[in-house]
Records
---
Amino acid sequence: MKVISIYNMKGGVGKTATAVNLSYQAAQSGLRTLIWDLDPQGATSFYFRVKPKVKGGGKKIVKGKSDLDDLIKGTDYTNLDLLPADFSYRDLDLRFADEKDSRLKKLITPLKKEYDLIVFDCPPSISELSQQIFRASDMLIVPMLPTTLSIRTLDQIRLFLKEEKIKGLKLRTFFSMVDRRKKMHKDIIEEFAAKGKGHIEANIPYASAVEKMGIERAPVGDFAPRTAPALSYRELWREINKELD
Amino acid sequence: MSRETVSYQLADTDTALDIAKLLAGVGKVETASERSFKLSYYDTFDWRLFDAGKALCVSQHEDQSDIQVESLNADEILASMPGRLKTGFADDFGSGRIRDMVEELIDVRRLMARLDLHALRTAMAVRDKEGKALFRLNLESIEAAKPGSRARKALGVRLVLEPIRGYAKAAEKAMALLDDSYQRKTEDRAPFLKGLDLIKVTPGDYSSKLKLHLEPHMTAQQASHLVHLTLLDTIERNEEGTAANIDAEFLHDFRVAIRRTRSALSQLDKGVLPPKVIAKAKDDFKWIGQQTNDMRDLDVYLLDFPKIQGSISESYRDYLTPFKDYLVSKQGKAHAQVQRLIGSARYRKILNDWRHYLTEGHQKSSRGEDAELPVKELADSRIWKAYRKVMKEGGAIDEDSPAEMLHDLRITCKKLRYLLEFFQSLYPAGEIGKLIKALKSFQNVLGEFQDTEVQSNAILQLGRDMAEAKKAPVETQMAMGMVADSILQKQGGARRAFHVRFDAFSTDEVKDSFKKLFKSRG
């Protein structure tokens, strides 16, 4: 079983869209996939039309009093299950603070038999929860906008990993919400691609199909499979999958 | 992640509309338009997936194609991935769950088309207020056909309910309603199995294991005929796949049956069949076997090629490519030779005459002096004799014995092994099974010892042939030398392992078992 986290401390970078669409692509390729919506806003759960509610809330999960197995919901897609968000997740930081660093990693261990891939959709913050997530993951995938500010946050993430002494975690970046007509986007992408270590070349374009996810409440690959973003997510998944092996 | 499905038997006249009306109270019923699917089922010639309770199918709808592995017991899909079969070998599945499930079962065998199911499917989903699916329903009308055939036979109409994880309540409510109107299929066999029934194919009708059932009261002659007829069936059943070169196992099974026939002629038939019959059959089957030697050798090299490549340093591996090309082209020629054999009048006459002799011809011919002996008596004495020979030859081998002695012992062991297998059904399965297993592991070392010598010599010879044909650049020759050397390196290990394994085969426990089972008390 592999574990990947879709993360950026900055909000509005297309994080949830990435988590939803990558999970969908992974499931379509035959991997038994579980996506855990850790963001109390519950956008991922909304996209999959699942109520953002978990019996017993985050407290019981962290304490190990809930069997994760009983909380999982099947999505409308083959091979793809969801562990929904819950408003109580806003306190997850405090809950995990009382636990060992590897608590989350331990919680997901029993799921190994059932799933080939776990995807964490992470809240946009840098905190106790983030470091728990990083320790439980094989790969950290950071969506970035092609802007200077967005790229700067990457240095902060690297610093955090170093300070927390988190090793063996692959860090991968890619650009999302790319507007090909903007010269600045083009320049930044070119410059970054040349020197960015661990950067994946597949870009996700800024497109109306991605915005429509909120209306369709489905991954783009489902309702607009032949559009540019759907194909880009597929390509992005292919590259990530290659690096996971 | 798997969910237990429930299916219902429907009449041809039941429609999706009837179902939708029935379940209107559970949620919003959404009915997609009817789609046609073609499900092509595959298995190896010897039904390896079926034996493991699985079926593999390629499901096609318009230009969408998915490979699925199904469980035959629970009628559910265990894994699925987009794609289609290209060659039918394990490589088709890339990496992932399907490969993990299938490769260890099929190994080097090729998947062959077994059955086509044509399904008209109306997919339905029952959703909650948010539009989330609570469970799915498939209304299916299925027809079965032989692969590629147009003649179809109706399998019936069924409704399959697939619960979705975390939404059990809704599914239970629906089942309660459906139970009131329709017959639930409690022991629903997978459509694959029902389809095979309809096209009159019996899964598991071939196994490379020798399946013989002898009765202790049979005469030696009756037993001999049965052994030979069973082997003859195996030879004939593997002809088509060998001629078409579907996978290397056809020829392998074909040759094993030839070898077993020859072994039976010398081990079992002496004194049972007339000497003249034995002598002629020995010559005939020897001739057939010889025609297939080259192809088998080349098959083995090609199957082992990844290992051969892996035996030398990575930087030299690419130089072996011309070697592989050469093997492939030689294998093509050797295969043509085997095709000619199977198509030849002489071959056909040998097999026909042999079958005729075994079924009726023998009545007119003379009998051996042991022909009327109860088979159990014959088996006891022949196995005991062969076992004593193994022990005598094995015991005489020390560190300095020449390689020939190990080669002779290997052949004696093979004879014992075949005798044990022919007569297996006359003895308690557990006890004789243990002895076969003990012998097998001992045989493996002897086999490795022999193979290392033969193969390293053969590679040198192939190198010479390639040089003569100007098909071997110097680098390739050097790399082949490394391969030959790495094979020879293994020989010393096999020789050391021999003594350990022979000791394990010589324990009092094994000795006592042989004595108890086979030594006559007279």
Note: Residues 189 and 323 of chain B are 49 Å apart (CA to CA).
---
Amino acid sequence: MHLNRLTCHELVEMIRTESVTAEDVVEHVFRRIEEVESKVNAFISTFKDDALEKAREIDKKIRREGKVGPLTGIPVAVKDNICTRGKLTTCGSKMLSNYVPPYSATVIERIEAAGGIIIGKTNMDEFAMGNSTETSFFGCTRNPWDLARVPGGSSGGSAAALASDETVLALGSDTGGSVRCPASFCSVVGLKPTYGAVSRYGLVSYANSLEQIGPMAKDVLDCAILFSVISGHDPRDSTSAPRPPCDHTSALDGEIKGINVGVPREFFAAGVDEKVKKLVLDAVSVLEDLGATCEDTSISYLDYAVPTYYLIAMSEASSNLARFDGLRYGFRAKCEGDWNEVFSATRSEGFGEEVKRRILLGTFALSAGYYDKYYLKALKVRTLIKREFEKALAKFDVLVAPTMPILPFKIGEMVEDPLTMYMMDVDTVPVNLAGVPSISVPCGFADRLPVGLQIIGRFFEEWKVLKVAYAFQENTNFNLKKPEI
Amino acid sequence: MITKEVVEHIAWLARLKLSEEEKEKFARQLSKIIDYFNVISKVDTSNIEPTFHVLELYNVFREDKEVESLPQEIVVRSAHESEDGFIKAPKII
């Protein structure tokens, strides 16, 4: 049996009954990594020896105490913008290519306390800026469903590692779709939690007011299990919502009779591939067959979501990334000049092109004479978009839409056209502007490439989003199909 | 329209040293992107408050109690250059 192909809930049960050991599971995962990693390039670093040692400790503890936590012995791959104490955390950038954080993110502490084993750090677009994982300093990750195509991004490494069974669970981060886009492109499950549901302490900041760490998994139950572990208030993050951790798995019963589902037509507008549209509308029919009430609805201002999102994200990024000065940590250019010269040379050599582009645009939007016209204006349009979601979600339990308007594209196809790439985020960024939770769950294949269904919910109603996703999954089983690699 | 001179100015503000080719390329790309972003000027936002954050959280304080922080010698280990527990910076003036 290939243990690496199983889910967390299956494996924890096997580990609990001692039919397998945590060491077996970790060994299977690393055997798979050694087998396919040269093709997929999902990881920036892996920790085989440490992971095996941790697994053996866990096995001993189980024999001694007989107690098993929700993630006991489960391998977890972590996006490389989440700090892991004593382990390289590069953000996919030359700027942090030598950075070893002296502390761990809250989510890492919680995963380890629940018995999870961090097996490695996954590839990503540099500083999470992109939707293809092509902007990584460490080379792009390939989509396990078609190695000539992108896995989506920016958490492309985490999604590809799950799809190719190189891990059992994974963490991503989602600022404008970075968990949901690669989940959709790789046919795995990815949840963008409500803003404030998961601590951002130890997440390298890109755009603070938009981003959340999110669980990624091979099925909806695993996603709910990991979300239950990482969510809940953290005093070290002042934007963390004052809510205690709770179990988000109990609502997953396959029952969605009477749930009101809104289908906002703007999410299916021009630019959405007809094949994607068909599969998502088929998914709506499945929900109807299961007893949900589905109804056409509208979210106004959606045409303005992409520019609004990018203006805010880039402005926040230009301010956040000012911390990379080559002094306290990270890369430092060989330069003998004064402060400004060293600072500028370090940033010019340390940052890649997309990061520079966003810093420049953000600096422009915040600069004297343009602040009101771009940054402040975008924040006001954000208010209008947020209200639209609140209005729609007052009427409906959830909204459904395509996650990505298109199928995974070819590596290199878009790199010279940043604006076209930004526009592909049209169905994911509005959710971050509003701050509500949203999941991407596999909903079929077109031209043998995966398509994701996006389910958007009310503030802090992840349970309902997960419930609908679970009912859909249990009646379609697209998640069980694996790529041939 | 973002000219090469505008790119030079914002690159200076952001402390990014750009080559001549980069300046020209970014001027071209940024103009196209900003042109597209300009569509938001069409939205009527009179009497609309900006949303900086989606959660209504205000003044999050913790108790003024001493808590352990990372030891200095561990923190300076990440720095490019340090001396006697301090981080060494290039000259400022």
Note: Chain B has one domain: 4-41+53-87.
